[in-house]
Amino acid sequence: MSFGKYIRKQREALKSKDRRFSVRQVAQRIGVEPAYLSKIERGDVAPPSEAKIRALADELGEDADVLLAMAGKVSSDLQAIIRKRPQLFADLIRQLKSVPDHALLRIARDVRDGDW
Amino acid sequence: MSFGKYIRKQREALKSKDRRFSVRQVAQRIGVEPAYLSKIERGDVAPPSEAKIRALADELGEDADVLLAMAGKVSSDLQAIIRKRPQLFADLIRQLKSVPDHALLRIARDVRDGDW
DNA sequence: TAATATGTGTAGTATATAGTACACATGTCA
DNA sequence: TGACATGTGTACTATATACTACACATATTA
User: Fold this and answer.
1) Which bases of strand C have any atom within 7 Å of the beta carbon of a protein residue?
2) Could you give all domains of chain B from N- to C-terminal order, each with its CATH number?
3) How far is the CA of B41 from the C1' of D30 (A)?
4) Once rounded to an integer, what is the mean pLDDT over residues A90-97?
5) What is the pLDDT of residue B115?
6) Contact B106 A83 (CB under 8 A)
7) Maximum Cα–Cα distance for chain B, whole Å?
8) If you measure CA to C1', which residue is closest to nucleotide D5?
9) What is the pLDDT of residues B48-95, one digit of tens each?
């Protein structure tokens, strides 16, 4: 699903329980014009900046990294981590491309536990 | 060192052995105007697009991921890998932020060998 | 039913990105 | 010493990014 459609779906779901989730009110809370949020949700314009996507994720209780991915972006903090050691991270991430989810979770767990 | 200064240094080094590495000739081979490459090397303009950086890396025998990092960019193929599984990769990369080089190399090796 | 809220159409703006085109002074070498 | 090559200054350009501002018709609510 597209970024816009997904946002609309999630916002409408929240709106059905709480009328503070109208386009206008959400737009105001995340700091954009209502017409702009409306256009984003309908795919009339490209997804907004990383900062606005983060505000939206916060507002809608969504995962920022997932919304950024839907918007075709990668979080700037992740990019900064990669840029500090480009060869190591580039090699590793390309290696991990075809590694199944459960194995990635296991690596993350092992690293967290210091088992490396 | 900045992207521009680094490129200039590497190109000049090659030029001292082979006069085909002049600004003009390298510019022609990577498909940009000489004045533009000159400005890039002096930091007069921002680094070029990913495609031109890759051509430059190829031409100068440099690692594209390293040059992209110096230019403040992350390879689009890596971004695509992350965007396909944003939560898993975001968590993992943030975990790996403070992991030392030798441990990253070991993880890469273990993954390559199927030890996971 | 009057006031208020809602979603959206149209038009426009500022800044960044990614360059080109041409001219010109200086340097090289045949 | 004349032709060609070299690096660079100046002036543009096209497209993308990231929005704002205002107006208007339609709902909703008091």
Assistant:
1) 5-11, 17-23
2) 3-70 (1.10.260.40), 85-112 (no CATH)
3) 68
4) 97
5) 64
6) no
7) 51
8) B24
9) 999 999 999 999 999 999 999 999 999 999 999 999 999 999 999 999
d(CA A95, CA B114): 11
DSSP string, B50-90: HHHHHHHHHHHT--HHHHHHHTT---HHHHHHHHHSHHHHH
Strand C within 7 A of B52 CB: yes
Rounded percentage of chain B residues whose pLDDT exceeds 90? 97
The answer to whether the CB of B116 falls within 8 A of the CB of A99 is: yes
* Residue type at position B50: E
pLDDT of residue B104: 97
Can you read off the two tokens belonging to residue B12? 């000049």
Q: Do B88 and A105 touch (CB under 8 A)?
A: yes
Q: Residue B114: what pLDDT?
A: 79
How far is B58 from A30, CA to CA, in rounded Å? Answer: 44
Chain centre distance of CA A41? 15
Dump pLDDT digits (tens) for B26-43. Answer: 999 999 999 999 999 999
Summary mean pLDDT of chain A: 97
Both tokens assigned to A19: 């009328």
Q: Do B93 and A86 touch (CB under 8 A)?
A: no
